User: Which sequence fits this backbone?
């Protein structure tokens, strides 16, 4: 996608809250939503992002995050939950693991 340019700051929480409002419209219907996020850097609103993911984890949805470029994506690995159940800053755990992170450069190597 040569016409796309990525810039900061990287704020996921506003997008996740909007996604949550959207997903809630379909609760009770046989619908499963998937959000795809492309990012090139560190999350600047990690606390709010984790809280939004915890809230979303009880809804019929998943989040796929693809990291592009050579940035430090260690915070994305935390959101992925592979090392243990993600918890928000208040200690609330995710109902289930809904985030999958993939570093594009590593996946294509």
Assistant:
């Amino acid at each position: 996608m040569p016409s796309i340019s990525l810039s900061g700051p990287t704020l996921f929480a506003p997008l996740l809250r909007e996604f949550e409002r959207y997903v809630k419209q379909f609760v009770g219907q046989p619908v499963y939503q998937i959000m795809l996020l492309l990012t090139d850097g560190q999350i600047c609103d990690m606390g709010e992002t984790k809280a939004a993911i915890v809230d979303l984890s009880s809804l019929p949805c998943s989040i796929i995050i693809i990291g592009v470029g050579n940035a430090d994506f260690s915070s994305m690995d935390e959101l992925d939950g592979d090392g243990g159940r993600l918890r928000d800053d208040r200690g609330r755990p995710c109902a289930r693991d809904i985030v999958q992170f993939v570093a594009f450069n590593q996946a294509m190597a």
Remarks:
- The longest helix spans residues 13-24.
- Strands lie at 33-39, 61-67, 99-103.
- The helical segments are 13-24, 46-56, 74-80, 104-108.
